[in-house]
Design goal:
It is a single chain. The protein is 37% helix and 12% strand. It is an alpha+beta fold. The protein has two domains: 174 residues, no CATH class; 105 residues, no CATH class. The termini are far apart. The structure holds iron/sulfur cluster (2 copies).
Length: 315
């Protein structure tokens, strides 16, 4: 413990934010742990009630904890939100089969968890604190909290947008049982823009939020069933995820390639041709995606996507 700053909230908060940057995060903000605002809680209820979460049943579970972080970690007072840039420096060419950028490198869950736990250890070196680190691993409304922590806003495409960085970021949270200085929530800067809505090949972005049933990202990653014929026709070259609503977003003109080594694509991945993908064996799949988030779709899921993509193009 560092007695000089253990009881100085401002100094402690600044030290934590500085350490977050040193660990490789691009942004760090802090929100007070409270119940989620009624407007957002009601929107979530409607979204789930209307079945827009598709087969993501976990979204409907643990609703109480999702709507109040103090039920997820007893004594939680502060939510430290961080964002890590994953925008790849080298990208697949337009004639190649496409993967969402976030899936180019190693699985981010482990990387984020490790760095968040390092941040927790650092906090505990400064002040008597208990905490828990989360990255897509618990019922946490991560974009809501990131907006409350002032690091960006949830755009119409549902992604968190950083004003000077765009939306190619992984998000993570550190729940702490100590009081910190809290940031001001960021207001939306989408204005009258609707570029993401117009760019979506599936008309999945609606006034009531994202309809996962239509979203290519859901259909090619989380979906356990077949790819509907209409979606297959609109897949184009996208065989794992879809970034169209992010590529169209004008704020992504600020995106800078990530310097994080673990998030860089391998040479073998960047060289893959449509013919290579069509003949992908399970053993090559394992080599290409060792420690990658693509494992989520499994070999059979990726082959299902490749077959649907080819069928959609009449091959
Ligand atoms: S990920 Fe693709 S399909 Fe899904 S909302 Fe964005 S543009 Fe539409
Ligand atoms: S494309 Fe426009 S409307 Fe969509 S998230 Fe970006 S700024 Fe907002």
């Amino acid at each position: 413990m560092n007695p000089a700053i253990a009881h100085d909230r401002a100094a402690l908060t600044q030290a934590l934010k500085k350490q977050a940057m040193e660990l490789g995060f691009t942004a760090c903000g802090v929100a007070k742990a409270n119940a989620v605002a009624a407007l957002h809680a009601n929107a979530l209820s409607h979204w789930i009630g209307n079945g827009r979460h598709a087969g993501m049943d976990y979204m409907a579970r643990h609703r109480d904890k999702r709507l109040d972080p103090r039920l997820l970690m007893e004594g939680c007072r502060s939510i430290v939100c961080v964002a890590m840039n994953y925008y790849p420096a080298e990208r697949l060419g337009s004639t190649q089969l496409q993967f969402a950028y976030y899936a180019y490198g190693k699985d981010y869950h482990e990387l984020m968890r490790t760095k968040l736990n390092e941040l927790l250890a650092y906090a505990q070196g400064l002040a008597p604190a208990h905490g828990r680190a989360f990255c897509d691993t618990a019922p946490v409304l991560e974009r809501y909290w990131a907006q409350q922590a002032g690091i960006g806003w949830a755009g119409r495409n549902t992604q968190l947008i950083l004003p000077k960085g765009g939306s190619y970021f992984f998000l993570g949270e550190l729940f702490l049982d100590i009081e910190l200085d809290y940031d001001t929530p960021m207001l939306s800067r989408c204005g009258t823009c609707r570029a993401c809505i117009d760019a979506c090949p599936m008309q999945a972005i609606t006034a009531a939020g994202l309809d996962a049933n239509r979203c290519l990202s859901y259909l090619t990653i989380e979906n356990k069933g077949s790819i509907p014929p209409k979606a297959a026709c609109r897949m184009g070259n996208r065989i794992y995820g879809c970034d169209e609503c992010q590529k169209a977003c004008p704020w992504n003109r600020f995106a800078q390639p990530t310097a994080i080594r673990e998030l860089q694509p391998s040479e073998a991945f960047l060289r893959m041709t449509p013919g290579n993908w069509a003949q992908l064996t399970e053993s090559t799949y394992r080599t290409l995606f060792r420690q990658s988030a693509v494992k989520r779709a499994k070999y059979q899921g990726l082959m299902r996507n490749i077959a649907a993509c080819r069928k959609g193009k009449g091959e």
